[in-house]
């Protein structure tokens, strides 16, 4: 097999500030000297044992104090295989799966070094950038005392600092984001919700709430209660327990355009993909993105659709989706009245040429929530009790509409 690499991963492994090897678990990795954290940005690499050379550029070292709190590519799983040998997992891949080798971790005082020996030569991983002011760097290997101060790595258990969701869109006081990570998790912050998408059609995407621990590698839609990752915290780890069967979301781990050698993207196709955004009324939906979106962002998700699918898929409950399907036969009267929706308010306007029109708004439960008679060109505004699907009935016709 090709010797590809998240050996990058093994590059940036460090251990707790004690002379003991870490147990299997989830960690963040930081270079002790440069303070740059490790992020796995693609799954391409190479190791040439004969030439003792390696390509580590799938791992990015980034100096950013906020990023560790929300970027899932910085969460690394160490799996102890015996003694100082470890396998390393992140972003849907592992070192052993890709290069059939296990790295060794060496205690180095209060820090750690990662390396291996080939042809009688031992090399250690270091931060390849000596300039401490630079934000971005990549791992490199070094023999002997070369770059010795940048060979020291620290590793922090994932619970040492919080991890949370950074909303992609905000509507009516709530944030929403798609999320795709290679670790199990559940919500920690009160009020957060997790959803799969289980049905699409008729301009809607049906959501099913998931509870418990989400399995690793499961794309989800997250409903957030705040604007920052600190407001929307997750608990990482645990045994998967959530029901995520029938999920229509497709997750993406990588969006790496840094170099041709490490090009790793999913190209956005407006005809067959819908991504999270806001619809024409400002509500969260899976939509057709604008021309500025070329590639699906890393660690997010999208919905695959047919070429004739609606441009916008409003987010609705599974119950509302099923109820809507039951009234698909309702015909629309495009001439008698027009409607304008603003939040929970709907303004109904009779056409100038229509006769006086009795207007009735009915909930899916069959209850009349508003009723009036409009003269030609007359308008009336109603405040409806909640968001959802309603039927607007006028003489001889009716139409469905969403709030």
UniProtKB/TrEMBL annotation:
Keywords: Signal. Residues 1-19 form the signal peptide. It comes from the Bacteria. This is T9SS C-terminal target domain-containing protein. It comes from Muribaculum intestinale. The lineage of its organism: Bacteria, Pseudomonadati, Bacteroidota, Bacteroidia, Bacteroidales.
